[in-house]
Design brief:
Elements: H1 10-15, E1 16-21, E2 25-30, E3 37-42, H2 55-76, E4 80-84, E5 95-100, H3 122-135
Antiparallel strand pairs: 1-2, 2-3, 3-5, 4-5
Helix pairs in contact: 2-3
């Protein structure tokens, strides 16, 4: 299913931790401990918008967003999930799935630009990643 010519955008590679692949998307954790924040990146060369995917791939993307969203909500017990495909700075199609709490630093505003990214504690992020992998069937 993945495109052989596909590669992860350099900015996304720099800003994330790769935790595995679902049938369509690479699953990544954003390097910012302020928020439990995931990215789903469809492995399709040249995809910028959701409409650049075929209808079957669009349905697969929605299924993967739902799978990851359910897992993130269950693990974090968050108040709200923010799900968005913006791509204003990075043109490669990617979908943000962010667990939000009424007590987080940006609430109720979007998370972008509110605080500089906070480095993850290595042990804590590994526990989070392991829980995610189990919940979304990555291992």
């Amino acid at each position: 299913m993945p495109s052989d010519a596909w590669s992860l955008h350099s900015q996304l590679k720099k800003d994330t931790i790769d935790i595995g692949d679902l049938p369509l998307c690479k699953v990544l954790v954003i390097k910012d401990a302020h928020y439990p924040w995931l990215l789903l990146v469809p492995r399709r060369e040249g995809a910028v918008e959701i409409i650049d995917l075929g209808e079957v791939e669009q349905a697969q993307l929605m299924a993967e967003i739902a799978r990851v969203s359910r897992a993130l909500k269950e693990i974090t017990k968050c108040d709200k999930l923010n799900v968005a495909a913006l791509g204003n700075l990075v043109p490669q199609l990617h979908v943000h799935v962010i667990a939000r709490r009424a007590s987080d630093a940006a609430w109720p505003r979007p998370v972008w630009g509110v605080l500089p990214p906070l480095a993850h504690d290595a042990e804590e992020v590994q526990i989070f990643i392991n829980a995610l992998r189990r919940k979304i069937w990555l291992g």
